[in-house]
Design goal:
Two copies of one chain form a homodimer.
Chain A (H helix, E strand, L loop, with lengths): L4 E5 L4 H12 L4 E6 L11 H5 L20 H8 L2 E4 L1 E7 L4 E6 L5 E5 L2 E4 L3 E3 L12 E2 L4 H12 L5 E5 L3 H10 L5 E6 L11 H14 L2 E4 L3 E7 L2 E7 L3 E3 L2 E4 L3 E3 L2 H5 L23 E3 L6 E2 L6 E2 L4 H14 L14 E5 L2 E7 L2 H6 L4 E9 L10 E9 L5 E8 L4 H12 L4 H5 L15 H13 L5 E2 L1 H10 L3 E5 L3 H6 L7 E3 L2 H4 L11 E5 L4 H12 L5 E4 L12
Parallel strand pairs in A: 1-2, 1-7, 2-3, 7-18, 9-16, 10-11, 10-16, 11-12, 26-30, 27-28, 27-29, 29-30
Antiparallel strand pairs in A: 4-5, 5-6, 8-17, 13-14, 14-15, 19-20, 21-22, 22-25, 23-24, 24-25
Helix pairs in contact in A: 1-8
């Protein structure tokens, strides 16, 4: 085993990580990476920050923290790994344990032997059935060269009207890096809300409300049919509902696993279309491992296979494959779909199952949506955050959580992800001992506050409507009182314009209970939800029979965008 | 039960929280809070930010997020709770269920009946046996009035030489709020390192190194004997080792639970000296509950009783007592000693057991100390962080973690705290699905990186010395090679001055192996530890028999402070 040949196909993230770990464990192995592209071991996730100018040097995207470029010379000197760039693997001969590769420049072919083969061959951007994608001004954001081209176009002033097609992770990161109040930027999303695979529709609406206020134009439930151009340059995006001026188009409709090489070699492909691997990251051929964007993973909650091409999985799996090609038995247990991104000043994160996903899986779910501050409200750095949590009514198990806001979201979702790993219940969450000091949190952390609200709902202490439900009631013309308990100043800043709205501050409510009609349903509303909850309890205590409060208050209200 | 009398003694944090929850559950209860002080429901934890000027308005420390002062009128109007300030409870008559209280201004006595009594009577600052504590210029930082007095003194220019006695949470928060390069600030700590109850000694040393470089003077293992003054004002602090000029002295040697009232009423006091309660927060009298700083808690890892006066426990317990005085069965399971603070630009956090604590409890522990970036190193906001993790070798269970640095620490320690709640192992930690994007993390999160290092140590793949061990080897005059594999620039910036140091960059090492003496022990060192680990593996691969690397690199080296 000592001098075995470890051949790795793919040199972006999964491959180099595997090589580094394998080398540390086995000084004598012959480790070779074949990469068809020009760059290796680069930070694909860093492209948006290069585009936005936050990272000035292109080189930084493939340099170590100590400033050394991660090129083939680096891999040879520091890792003892042979890297061949511009070398595309063409076929795998499993019987003879050989890989035929071709130099992408010269066409020269070369055969590489292996004892263990590792496929870190990534994913490919999906090309949607849109006419004229070949026009100039049409970009993707999947490879380093894409980032360079977009940046050049922006610097050349060729990005005044930008249309981004798709609002998944890559679409939103592209948005974050190209958005400017000086540009007209439109996102066209085939589904009904932003980040449809990541955020539940209610959070997607709140996200859009915020981005809209910053100047983003969103088109939802709209399908791009074709592009139009002049002199070979794109000028318009034509959808099934209209047209949009476009000087730059960024295609971001997702990726699919790159499985050609594996499929042609007869390796098992899973139900998701990605390469099937066991918990040791072995394919159906025990001497061939696969990892990263080209494989499918097991969702720890649903038990189902999922295609989840995330950089963190590629890196963590690299360590596991590095162990196992050297005889180890390390395992990758599965994923929870945790994801986080930053877009136009907002932090966005999720873990576990979304509400609809959970319902589709047959769970009887309860949810809570809260708005609060990410640290003590009196601290000058405090910012608003929104959290949603989803729980299985039957077992009390938390199924997922999502967050959105200017404040700290990411690590609280990590806390929930940790919960989910252990199959923890809501009661467990409420017993967590999370750190508190004014610059970091509130005495009861926002994520526990969210859990408390959910528990109050399950216990029947808190009876709520979502903003969407209140909006539907208003639209249906139902007779009820929408009791706004904020201060007059807060009310005047922003309010729901409707005859059914009544104003009474929380401080007045106990004294003026007789002003609230007792024979009608009363829905209380405030800024973030806590005073409305208090008001609802006061009304119920006073004998009102049909009282609810609107979750997350006006902070959770996405319906006043023009 | 509906119209029962709930009497709450103490109006700072635990009491008001209890009252609010009890009221929401029971609209008809008669709820009364007695508070001997002037202010109620105030943010004691916010005092340092008021002192430092980050919070401008004193009122903000006891106002709601929507700007309403939390005074008795507020509690009456919004909560339906009667609050009597300046009213000190003197005795509890358990047989008759009555409390005798006295107006602190008029001396007038009044009797309050209860069905359920709640003690949220907090803690008192310890007065150490130091002579002349009555001099002017001597302060504490335990009550809002303390903060006001210190601020007035600073504004009057009476804080040029400041001595803080004690470096626990309150001492460090006082330091954070009074420190300025324009003042001479000294911390005198009886134990050997900063924050001795919170951080292990190695992190305490690294913390001090950083604060020292900013201008703090620390005196360790030093006991204050007396103060000296002129014209009734303090001028000097006299210790067992010398004297320090002092215009202002802040006493912060800790707090002890306020148990007088409970003790005199015959309620059980626990082994820690705090009030003993069960998981329902009931004292030895089932109709009397106690919570917050006056009670002892169960440590979830050691199973032992601990006195842990943290604001977050007071608040979480308030919810539980609010439930239970209304017939609920909510439980508080225990604590993990999670704590976090910000001091002079550094974030500091811990959870679970410290290394020494764990050893004292009989655990056979392994630890890892790492230095890394809190997000991708190429992101302009990335900052350095140090994490330490402690694991039980026998079971693989994680026992605790600590963090220190300018970057994000707090929420990663929360992730470990969540782990600890479930008794998770190191392998569990490595399987967590934490969110990644460049502005939030590294593809392998720092806390998982710490876990990987720990696993490498347990597996014998990583053999390390701590900085302290290397320093001891150097001081003992041992013959070994300290192989520095950083770039020459990095070496020249800061290095260990010793003949035994040899320089070879990691990139050169494979080619120049013959320059490293094979018959000596080799200890590799770099900036943060990762290149030194790589170098150690290269040397071992090349047949070197006795190789180790220094954990956390020069970032973990606290010994060059002058």
């Amino acid at each position: 085993m000592a001098s075995q040949k470890i051949l790795i196909i793919g040199g972006v993230a999964a491959g180099p990580k595997t090589a580094a770990r394998a080398r540390r464990l086995n000084p004598e192995a012959q480790i070779t990476i074949l990469e068809k592209g020009k760059y290796i071991s680069y930070a694909g996730c860093g492209m948006p920050y290069y585009l936005s100018g936050q990272i000035h040097e292109f080189d930084h995207l493939y340099s170590t923290a100590y400033g050394v470029k991660r090129d083939p010379e680096f891999f040879k000197a520091e890792r003892g790994v042979d890297v061949l760039t511009g070398m595309e693997a063409v076929t795998i001969n499993r019987a003879d344990k050989k890989v035929l590769a071709r130099n992408v420049d010269t066409g020269e072919e070369q055969i590489f032997e292996y004892d263990k083969l590792v496929l870190g061959i990534g994913s490919n951007p999906i090309t949607p059935p849109i006419e004229n994608l070949g026009l100039k001004g049409v970009y993707r954001l999947n490879h380093l060269t894409d980032a360079v081209r977009i940046k050049e176009a922006m610097e050349a002033g060729e990005a005044n009207d930008v249309v981004i097609i798709g609002s998944g992770f890559i679409g939103m990161e592209a948005l974050d890096s190209v958005f400017s109040p000086m540009r007209a930027v439109t996102v066209v999303e085939f589904k009904e809300t932003l980040l449809p695979g990541i955020l539940d529709a209610d959070l997607g609406q709140l996200l859009y409300k915020n981005l809209y206020e910053q100047g983003l134009e969103g088109r939802f439930g709209e399908k791009v049919l074709r592009l139009e151009g002049e002199d070979g340059r794109v000028t318009k995006v034509i959808t099934d509902k209209g047209e949009i001026d476009a000087e730059m188009v960024i295609l971001a409709v997702g990726v699919r696993p790159n499985v050609k090489l594996a499929q042609e070699a007869g390796l098992a492909i899973g139900e998701t279309g990605a390469i099937s691997v066991n918990e040791y990251m072995q394919t159906s051929d025990a001497d061939i491992y696969a990892l990263g964007d080209c494989v499918e993973n097991t969702h720890l909650l649903s038990g189902k296979k999922v295609f989840a091409p995330m950089a963190t999985y590629a890196n963590r799996q690299g360590r596991i494959v590095g162990d196992n090609v050297n005889g180890g038995k390390s395992t990758f247990k599965g994923v929870l779909g945790t994801g986080v991104l930053h877009c136009m000043g907002l932090n966005i994160a999720r873990t576990g199952l979304g509400e609809k996903q959970a319902r589709d899986l047959g769970y009887d779910v309860e949810t809570a949506l809260i708005s609060t501050f990410d640290m003590t409200h009196y601290h000058p750095s405090s910012s608003k955050v929104i959290f949603k949590m989803i729980v299985d009514k039957k077992t009390g198990k938390i199924l997922g959580a999502q967050g959105l806001g200017k404040g700290e979201i990411a690590k609280r979702i990590d806390v929930v992800a940790t919960q989910l790993y252990y199959g923890g219940t809501l009661d467990d969450l409420l017993n967590l001992d999370l750190g508190y000091a004014p610059p970091f949190s509130t005495p009861i952390d926002p994520i526990i506050h969210c859990g408390n609200t959910l528990k109050n709902k399950l216990d029947g202490v808190a009876k709520t409507y979502t903003a969407q439900e209140v909006q539907e009631k208003l639209e249906r013309g139902e007779d009820f009182v929408l009791l706004d308990v904020r201060t007059p100043q807060q009310f005047n800043m922003r309010n729901i314009q409707d005859q059914r709205v009544q104003q009474l501050t929380l401080g007045e409510l106990r004294e003026k209970l007789d002003q609230v009609p007792k024979d009608k349903e009363v829905v209380t509303v405030c800024v973030m939800g806590s005073r409305a909850y208090e008001a609802a309890r006061i009304l119920e205590g006073a004998g009102f029979k049909d009282v609810k409060f609107m979750e997350a208050g006006m902070e959770g209200w996405p319906f006043d965008m023009d």
